[in-house]
Every structure is written in C-alpha cells, then in structure tokens.
Write a structure and sequence with these properties.
Layout: E1 5-10, H1 19-30, E2 38-43, H2 64-73, E3 77-81, H3 82-87, E4 99-102, H4 104-113, E5 116-119
Helix pairs in contact: 1-2
Length: 120
C-alpha cells in the first residue's frame, strides 16, 4: 500500500546528459515492491521532449519514451508543462499514452501533497 508520494521534477532534455535517465531510474526504484512510494513526474523546459511519442535513440542507448511508458503503466502520474510543450511545438497528441499536459497550479498541488520533492 502506498502511504507516501514523491514528486520528481525533470528540467533537462532527454538525451545528452543522464539526468532524465537517472530520474526515471529513481522513479522505477521508488515504485518497486521494496519501497512502495507513489510517484508523480512533472516535465519542464526541454524535458517535455521526454514524453514525445516515436523516439528513436541510437542502438545501445536507453529509450526514455519506453521507460516513461512503463512507469505510467505501473501507476506513475506524468504531467508535461503545457506552456513549455506549446513553446516547443508539442500538443497532447504528441505525448506518450498516459502523459497529460499540466499547469504550474497542478505542479504546486503535487508539491503541497508530496512527502518528498526532487528536481533533476
């Protein structure tokens, strides 16, 4: 049973640095049977590209779209900053299934309700 919730805020582009990858790895570990945290992920700035459908990373590279989709299937809530997405030409139809466009007010509520907030 989930008794605490962690919100992870990701700001970095999905590829090039490893911050987004490490954030998703932390989310995966946090929802595991050994830890059992509830997890929210909010994507800001260039991190909105993390939620884009149809990613095709080079062979041997981690696929963040697949990692994010797997987390969503396992109950992680994902919101994408609507203002940031719009500025980068992304709409709801461009996002992986289960990710939703969000707002700063929505993020503020997650922060208020969360036991822990971490920013990558």
């Amino acid at each position: 049973m989930v008794t605490k919730t962690m919100t992870i805020i990701i700001n970095d582009a999905p590829y090039g640095a490893e911050r987004a990858w490490n954030a998703l790895r932390l989310a995966s570990a946090s929802i595991s049977a050994a830890v059992k945290l509830g997890v929210n992920i909010f994507l800001l700035g260039d991190a909105v590209h993390l939620s884009k459908k149809g990613q095709n990373p080079p062979g041997g590279y981690y696929n963040l779209e697949k990692m994010l989709a797997d987390l969503i299937k396992n109950g992680v809530k994902v919101q994408v900053c609507g203002t940031c997405a719009k500025a980068r030409g992304l709409s709801q139809e461009d996002l992986v299934e289960g990710a939703e466009l969000g707002t700063m007010m929505g993020l503020a509520k997650w922060v208020e309700e969360s036991h822990t907030v971490i920013s990558f």
